[in-house]
Design brief:
Glutaredoxin, five-stranded mixed β-sheet, 5 helices, 5 strands
Length: 166
């Protein structure tokens, strides 16, 4: 074996030994469970716990009920009753994350469906509605026609979203 292969094997054996992956240990009964711990159940979130920021919000295969916060999908505007707004969100934008977290924690305002639109990938919608800044919210009618828009960059909150409702 050449010296380079010997070094690589030595390093690999050392890593395996340090991580405990080299060989399973067994208890006196030979069950392979020496030192094993009984898993501790993790506490589950109750209904009052807001979803984590990395929890995906549902897409809209069927029409959401008014007052929902959902990912935008093509055709969702026409399939959704009630007031609706497009929230142009960018994952790299701290103000967008602030509003997103608040919408996840508090939910959408009653009677308003908030569609989360990816600012970076949906350039077609940005162009259609004249959106040039993330945190823009665009209120649309049942056909997807612009009613009004507002930029919530300076105050990315549900309260500002409610204040912007036409």
């Amino acid at each position: 074996m050449n010296p380079r292969s010997t070094s690589a094997v030595t390093v690999l054996i050392g890593v395996l030994a340090l991580t405990g992956c080299a060989a399973p240990t067994t208890d006196a009964a030979g069950t392979g469970m020496a030192g094993a711990r009984t898993p501790t159940p993790t506490p589950t979130a109750d209904a009052s716990t807001p979803p984590a920021a990395d929890t995906p919000i549902p897409e809209t295969p069927s029409a959401p009920a008014p007052g929902a916060y959902v990912e935008y999908t093509d055709g969702a505007i026409e399939a959704t009753a009630g007031q609706k707004v497009l929230f142009f969100h960018a994952s790299w934008c701290p103000q967008c994350r602030t509003l997103d977290e608040e919408l996840r924690a508090l939910g959408a305002p009653d009677g308003l469906t908030v569609f989360k639109v990816d600012y970076d990938s949906r350039t077609d919608l940005r162009q259609k509605y004249g959106v040039t800044l993330q945190t823009t919210v665009v209120f649309v009618d049942d056909r997807g026609e612009l009613i009004s828009s507002s930029v919530l960059y300076d105050d990315p909150s549900v309260a500002s979203l409610v204040a912007a409702v036409p």
